[in-house]
Amino acid sequence: MTEYKNPIDFVELSKKRSYVKDVFSEKKEKVEIVGWVHDIRALGKIKFLVLRDISGIIQVTAVKGYVSDEIFEKISKVSRESVVYIKGKVADSKQAPGGKEIIPEEFLEFAHAEDLPIDVSDFSKTELPKRLDYRFLDLHRRKIQAIFKIQSTLLQAYHEFMTNEGALEAQFPSIIGSSSEGGTELFEAKYFEKKAFLSQSCQLYKQMLACSMEKVFAVFTVWRAEKHNTIRHLNEARQFDYEQAFADEFVVMDVLGRGVQFMVKKVLELNKEDLNLLEVKLEIPKTKYLTFAEVVELCKKHKVHVGKDDLSGESEKMLGELFPETIVFVHDWPLAGKTFYIMPKEGKNGEELSRGFDVIYKGMEISSGGQRIHLPELLIERLKVKGLNPKDFKAYIDSFRFGAPPHSGFGIGLERLTMLILGLNNIREAVLFPRDRDRLTP
Ligand code: AMO
Prior knowledge:
There is one protein chain. The protein has helices at about 10-15, 20-25, 70-75, 130-135, 135-140, 140-165, 205-215, 250-270, 270-275, 290-300, 315-320, 375-385, 395-400, 415-420; strands at about 30-45, 45-55, 55-65, 85-90, 100-110, 170, 175, 190, 195-200, 215-225, 235-245, 285-290, 325-330, 345, 350-355, 355-360, 365-370, 405-415. The protein is α+β, with helices and mostly antiparallel strands and about 450 residues long. The chain folds into two domains: about 10-110, CATH 2.40.50.140; about 135-430, BirA Bifunctional Protein, domain 2 (2-Layer Sandwich). The strands form four sheets. An eight-stranded mixed beta sheet has the order 6-10-11-18-17-16-13-12. Strands 1-2-3-5-4 form a five-stranded mixed β-barrel. Strands 7-9-8 form a three-stranded antiparallel beta sheet, with no helix packed on it. Strand 4 and strand 5 form a beta hairpin. Helix 6 (about 140-165) crosses helix 8. The longest helix has 23 residues, at about 140-165. Aspartyl-adenosine-5'-monophosphate binds near residues 224, 233 and 368.
């Protein structure tokens, strides 16, 4: 067996180590830092190395004759993205980025990076598919890290917002016995002797829970076996789910609007540097409510194709252009365009409408939701209309037989939201390890 001995006492290191950003603010004369070799430049007798850790970058300067020959030699040989430990003096320097540099006194290489298969510099032009083949290395890039630092803020902010709303965080099964959204986009799984599916959503479960615990939320992974490869769909995605008892669709649209505003506000507060790095200008969005019929009128006026009982990509884009920096709620949706669990509603002229809605932000759907059917007989009727077998939904239907209040909810796509607030061209940029039609690794 090959034996590996740690070259350093990590317990000691974790007590003494400085993060790069702190080197600039603290007044320490000597520091111990660790990180990746971000850049190397050699000017004859001077070697510059830029070290990067999760908090920032700092220049390390080795001048032959001023540092030991051994350190000079080691720095001369180091490759980009290698992982190093440096102990050294902090010196002011007008030329160094941030006005400080480190003069190394000890140097250790934890891991040597081989020739890099993709460019991970700040100026990288490597195409997305190739970057995703080496996603683990792509994640060394500061711009890519900025995306996921912002996504982390969105996750934390959603928790904070929902907790402040008095909602309970819930965990739901990811293996299900029947479709939760209707349609055919299901991944089949073998479950002992039975056929099972990977969860399309936690829809049925969050409803059952809201019928006893009132306000519930989850960050839930969903699987959709959509065959097409688009820039806005993934086969594995995550949703911010919410469900509330004693609420109609307008109650939860209001919660959703305030929730997105809260999340964007948190990103503006906590991710200033990341937004700068990504050159993103972000604003707290306003909200706007339109009926589906009003959107159809707008489409006619602007000569944009609507879509049958649904909004076309083109019409979503139009809403983004007409109402910039606005969360647009499209409600009173045609019943035919909504799935089996959405509550029907009669329109003024007897049209078959529903209490379902879609939410468009920056020209794309970020969420859908609505009031649900809590009446077993109506639910059975709607399942049949949608070509589904009520027998497959027995437990779900029964859950409304023993005291189930009217309730409503929504699901927001985490990657969609990340993609849109950061202006990313492809949803795959907004997921660490994307799963699409062609990609199962890394
Ligand atoms: P829906 O299927 O509309 O509704 O999904 C809600 C939101 O999740 C995101 N989303 C996706 N993102 C990436 N790739 C996909 N394949 C994908 N599918 C969905 C979108 C979408 O608006 N249970 C309901 C929600 C509810 O009524 O509570 C549901 O799943 O941003």
